[in-house]
Every structure is written in structure tokens, then in C-alpha cells.
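Quick one - first record:
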Amino acid sequence: LKNAYGAVLDETFDLRIREPNRLANARAIFIRSGHSLAPSAVELPYVLEETAMNIVRGEEMPIILVHDEERSPEKEYYLNARLAFEGNDSDLAIARSLGIELKPSRRLALSNEDVLQIAQFGNYGGYETSERLLDWVVSRQRRWGTPIPVLLSEDDEHEHAVCLSDEQLPALPVSSGHPQRVPCDRLPGGFGVPEKDTLDTFFDSSWYYLRYLDPNNEKQLIGADKLAQMPVDVYVGGIEHAAVHMFFARFISYFLKDIGVVASSEPFGRLLPQGIVRGRTFLRTDNGKYVPETDVVQKGSSFVEKCDGGEVIVQYEKMSKSKRNGVEPLLILNRDGIDLTRLQLLDTAAPRAPINWGDADVKGLKKWLDRVSWVVNEYVTQRSVCASCASIPAEVDHATEERYREVYNYAVRNPFQELESIHQSDLLTHYDPKLSIIVAADASEYGIGAVIQHRMPNGSVKAVAHASRALTAAEQNYSQIEKEGLALTYAVTKFRKMVFGRHFTLLTDYRPLLGIFGSKEDVPKHAAKRLHRWATLLLAYDFTIEYRKTSDFGQTDALSSLISKQRKPEDYYFNVLFCISNGICYTFCPLYRPQSNGQAERFVDTFKRTILKLRREGSVSEIMDIFLRTYRTTPNAFLAEHRTPAELFLDRPPRTSLDLLKFHRSSLPNANSSLIAVTVPVPDSSRFSTPSTHGIAKGKIGDLEKSRNESAASCIKYRWQTEQLRDSTSVSCANASHSKSLC
């Protein structure tokens, strides 16, 4: 910013724009009355004395105070400021009335990335930020919070504020409150009044996580050796509490990074937010008011209010007093106990998902707790019995001990020794996350092989699992380095569940891969695209790659030649065999396959609108039954013969409640006929583009036909099949009186 005399001010103009390339050809800035630079009691539009320097063009831009306009895509204000847009007629009119030209004399064709690089190079910004993030208040009017070390002037007409000096810190409150006057030469009058507000408690708890690592260090905030353990791997907390807490913690961490205390700006590597607990809410459909559960009664599948019978919808929302869906914790604890309540919270949903209170199977959880309690009580009982054995006579005790020893040797010791000998053999060992992990992979001309191993405490290496597969025709044309890289990628992804999140050693007999997969800073640019992609994939794993001679690499070299015949994963292969042997048709996707993203989005939009319209029809399960039944029984224009999805999937018409309808035998014109074609007049049937499925009984849907009688309306032909008659002859009954004989 510059003042009216052209002097550069020690202040910057915070401008946030969605399309940075507009700054390359901007000539003016519009602000609204809420901006900090906006003067009061001036005639609008008004040109401020201050100007802003365009960091791209190097030109001064006037700052214009305009009326508070309505929001629009061309007039999108962030922090009450925006760039004047030359393509907007109102912006051009305002600028011309003030004698300001918005069109640049020379247009610059720069992209968003170009403008961001210019801003970052000059340290003017150029980073993504929030469009809604404004100045926030961190002070609270409380006495017991963290003091704010600021002195305020006693003169109300000239407000001044200065920070306390280092000698005056810490500014802790005394029991009688803050002192009224503090000597200060930097304030008018030589005295100041301490700030009485305190910092928010979220601010208090946002910095001392560093002290947890080094609590006994009285000379430093945190030692260098302890600081190497930062940042925190995972932050687990409530989704609302963690959001505010991390907001302050990240702010302080960035500040500590700027002053050189910490090396990383981000204090937490990953956030695991826990879902909020939601209660069952009862909402009136007519006036939108919330009703307590005690005032609601259920009638069938719907709910109504007791007082006037008004319809009420049930949904789960965040617990709140205004929504009247809160739960008294003491009542729950007294009824179920603390263990069952905690277990209910853990069992209801995943950590990130919201918890709908009351959906958990309390009976099943209670039964599980009873079993655990029985095991513990039985263990305590047996221990007490063993403790009382000291009073048994020595002779009886000796005989009992010999008997128990004989049984123990036969039933426990001998089998255990046999299992231990098998475990010490050259067979596979069980996976143990406490042992070090070794993953080896090799490639041959026709296949790739991999093995995951454990280094045992005695120094020996034992295999946990083996894997191999054949190379496809395209993979056989890879170069040798690409085949070896494919083998390493296959091994790591194959054993992902055992190696992800743990450090392991990756072995290869191809030395050039050490420089490609061994770099943890960045993937070498000289690597081929395929190797570059694999190396990028392996950056998510923590491993150390090492070289082994081919002569010492027999465990994987043999596997690369003794390959499995199937090229797809073993789980998929055995699932296919199981389905073939049991006559199961393996369906991979829905019958309706959208041909574009637009069709998929329209299907989702239709689904949401349908569910919203049916919200008064019953519970969620009943609504889903209605929607799925309608979808499965509706003819699809994209399917052959306009068949329904149920017909395509089951190879027969869907069964409905109309299947129970039977013909009265007296209404049949011919006892030898098996099919009755009933013609039912339908007014204005031209509205139907496909046969309707509403009211269909057993059989297939007929095509739409026009009646031969000119006075008759269009009709829909239904075929009704009876169980008593088997003949294939069909009789057309044009007389509508036959439809009256249906029962």
C-alpha cells in the first residue's frame, strides 16, 4: 500500500481471488463498507487516498469504496474486497464516473500458475487459503484463563496498547485481581492498565504437547533430541473439538517454525476425527418444530404427536437442547453400567462415522460382557481353590501331584514339544509383528516371485508366505529392470497388510533398482515412466532396500520360475471356482450401467429426490423397499424388448401381490384356452412411452395397442395366466364385461 504522497506503508492489502490470472490485467480494487480501510460518512463511490501496487504489472491500483452490492459470480467479495472486472457493465460505469480506465493498455496472457509463482517469488502470498476465514477472537472474559500480556492506555480518547517487556513477564493474575495501574514509559501518562480478558482455553491446550516430550527440561521449551520425534503421527479426537483445537495448534506451530523453535510447520501428521453422537429427533412436518420423544406415539409405521395427532418424522441429528433429543448420561450409566455404555459407543459405528444412539444391540453386548465376566470369575475361583490346597496332607498332595504330572506330560507337554519342533523346522512360521520383516522378490522371463520372511531371535530367517504369478504377454516384453521393478511392487502390494505402517527390508538381486527405489526424498527424474510410477507407489511404505547376489537369492528365484497358472489374485480365482461348481452366476455390477458421468449423476439425483418425496411413507427400510421394488419392476427402454431389471436378472417376471388374483371359471369363454387377453380402456394412453408395470399380475406385459373401435380409447393389454388351464390357445376378449369376473 501507498499513501497519498506516494510513500510505501508498512501494510499489505489482503486480497483473495478465485482466479489469480485476473490480477494480471486488473486496474482497480473495489471494497465495501465493512473493510478496515473504508472511511465513514463519505459519498459513494469514493476513491481512497491509499493505492495498492499490482505485483504483476507493477502499476498502482486505486481503491474504490462502493455500495454494498448483492452477491453474484462477477461480484464475489472475500474480506469485503474484490478486483474490478472490466467485463461487468456496472464496474465499468463506476470506473468511468470516477475517471478510471479498467481496460489495460497492454494485456498480459498469464495463467493462474504464472501469477502464483510471481506472488511466491516476491513473498506476496500466492497460496491457497479459506474464503471464509476472517479475524477471530481469542480472548474470553474470564479470570482463570491464560493472561494476555498487553497494557492498555488509561486515556479512552487515544487508545494505545503495548506488550509487556520481558522483565515484566509472566503477567500472572493475583488473588485480588489485576493491579489497576502499571508503570509504562511507552504509554501516554506513563501508566497503563493490564488487559483483563484471558485467552481461550483452546489456545491454552494448543502448545503444551511439546512439553509432554520433555517435561523436566527447565532451560528449553523442548530439547533437540526430543524434538526429533515430532510431528505427532496421529491425532484422535472428536470432530468438532479437534477442529478448533487443531486450528490453534497449527497456528502456534507455524509461529514456532518461523522463530526457529521447531523444524516442521504441521504439528500433526494425520487426523482421525471421531463421529459425533446423534440422538433420535422428532420433527413436525407442518410447522417444523421439534417434539420431545415423550410426546410422540407410534401408529403403524408412522409417528404422531399425542396432543393433536400431527404427523411427525423421525431422524437422527446432533444432540441439542433445542432439538430435544438429548440423553441423560446418569440414567444410562445407572441402567446399563459404565462398561456396557462404553462398549455400546465402540460397537455402534466406525471411528469416523457418526453414532446413532440407541441403534446398538444391547442384548448381544450384554451377553458378551456376561461371558467375559464368567471367564474372569472362574479364573479367580480356581486360583482361590489352588491357594487352599496348602492344607491337604503331604501324602495326598504328593499322589495328586504325580497324577497331574502324568496327565500334564501326556496332554500338554508332549504335544507342545512336538509343535515346538515343527516350529523350529524349515516350514513356514506364523506372522509376528514384533519380529523384523524381510520381503524379497525376483523376476524371470515368464513370471515373478515373492516371499515375506521373519528374522528370528536366534538370527535365522524363516518364511511367512510365498507368492508368484505369470507375466502377461505385455509384461513379457518389459526390459529386465522393469520386470525386476514389477516384482518388487507386486511383493509389497501382495503383502501390504503385513508391511504397511511397519519398517521392513526389501531385497533384490538387481543393483540398479537401489538408486530408483531407495531414494526417499524424491523419485529420480531419469527413471522410466513405468519405474517412476512404481517408485512413487512405494513411497507410501517404510522400507530399506538392499542388494543380494543371485546365488544367495534362491527362495525367490525359484518362485519366479514355479509360477501360478492363474494371473489374477488367488482369492478371485478360488471364488470363481466355487461359483462354477455350485452353479452360481457371478454378477460384478448392477444391471443398469450408466454410459457417462452425467447419467450416473442423474441416477443419483433421481434416487435422492425419490427418497425425499417418500420420507412420509414409513421408515428408511420401507422406503428402500418401495424404491427398489419400483426400479426392479419398471421396464427399461435400454434393455432388449423393454424388459424389467428383474426379468433380466431372474429370467422371469417379478412376483407381486397381484399374483394372488385368480380367474373365476364361469367367466372363461372357452375351457380349453390357457391365456386370457383382457382389454382395459385407459384414458389418454398416449402419455405412456413404455408399458406400465402398475397393477400387473402373473405373466408378461403386453404392448400398447390402439383399439379398432374408433370411439374406444387406447388400451393396455395384459396377459393373465391361470393355473388350471394348460392349453396354449389364446382367446381375445374385447368385451369389458369379462374384466368384472376377476375375483
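second record:
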Amino acid sequence: MLVFPNSDPISSTERSEIRFALLEEMQVAVKVIKTIVLDSAMRPILAKKILKANPWSSIHHPNVLNIQGFGFFPCQSPTTAEVPSPSRSFALISSYMSYGNVIRYVDENPEIDRINLVRTYSGR
């Protein structure tokens, strides 16, 4: 079960938002895709398709976060306020990274060896 300690998203764009959550005491990021909104009848259909054809879940690489799962998040954003309440936005669940992405990490750690970071990310 996902537990959201804070109701506010960590970051948000017009199309998606990232929320911090706990999944069985593991820190995870929940990416809610605002543009994929489904009613209760469509959710099981999408779930089957995702399980069948999800390339992200089969990728195993040290520089790619593993997907922990997916779900359907209640529509609460202003962009989906007109959507009926039983509808849900599609959400991907992955490991939580405290800096969010490499750009923010470099911005907040200016002393970092950027050449080594590029080598690490390129797999060399």
C-alpha cells in the first residue's frame, strides 16, 4: 500500500507531477500522468496492456531506475478538475531519488567531478 506523507507534489508540470510516497517503508516516486485519465471501466483494460507490453520493467541497467509498479491516482489537479471524481490518472512508481535528476544533483553539488559523472552515465 502506498502512503503519501505529504499531499503536495514534489514537482509539477502541465502534463505530470511527481509525488513522494512510501511503499512498504521503501521511498518511491509516483509520477502521475495528468493527460491519461481513465474511468473505472478502462483501468483494468489498461492494466493488462501495461503488464503485457511494458519495456521499462524489463530494462536492467545501473543508470535506469527500475519500475516498482503502476497505479491510478485520484484526479485532483486544476487541469483535471472538470473530470468526474471516479476517474483516475495513470501513475508510474519508481525508486525515489532525493535530487530528482542529474541536473539538480549537479546544480546542488558544484564540486562534483563532472567528467567522472559523464563517464558513469555513459557506461564507460
